[in-house]
Specification:
This protein is an alpha/beta fold and 140 residues long. It has a single domain, classed as Divalent-metal-dependent TIM barrel enzymes (TIM Barrel), CATH 3.20.20.150. The protein has helices spanning 2-6, 19-25, 29-35, 84-93, 111-123, 134-137, and strands at residues 15-17, 40-45, 47-50, 72-75, 100-102.
């Protein structure tokens, strides 16, 4: 919000919605969509697996990717904790029709397997919004 204020809410300034970073920072990615619905110019699909064991925290980020002592890791989309269905429903509801990219990062999986798997996992959530309200369907 401070950045938008600092630039006078310039229309050309948009945001990249990347839920993988929201997850490890404790930010609700779906609420972010609603809070910044007019500023999301790109969607970057990457997942994060959280490991809140009581011993692992975000402060373990200095450890190598895939190290079990980390409190979180980037994983192939669909294999982590990002609420993808809620996220895509929110993106549809706000009328987002911009680019959707898969950013693939997973230290425990080969990319030639993981990238197509991530695409398949996310495709099932990219559906059109209903053009009929629920109650109106019963008036026919």
């Amino acid at each position: 919000v401070r950045t938008l204020e600092a630039i006078g809410h310039r229309e050309a300034f948009g945001l990249n919605w990347d839920p993988s970073h929201f997850m490890w920072q404790g930010i609700d990615p779906v609420s972010f969509i609603w809070d910044f619905k007019d500023r999301i110019y790109h969607v970057d699909c990457k997942d994060t697996k959280l490991r809140p064991t009581g011993r692992n925290t975000v402060l373990g980020s200095h450890l190598p990717w895939g190290d079990p002592r980390r409190g979180w890791d980037f994983v192939s989309a669909g294999r982590g904790d990002v609420p993808w269905e809620s996220s895509f429903r929110a993106l549809t509801a706000i009328g987002y029709d911009g680019p959707i990219s898969i950013e693939w990062e997973d230290a425990g999986m080969d990319r030639l397997h993981g990238a197509p798997e991530a695409l398949a996992a996310l495709k099932k959530f990219d559906f059109p919004a209903s053009n009929t309200s629920f109650d109106a369907a019963f008036k026919q």
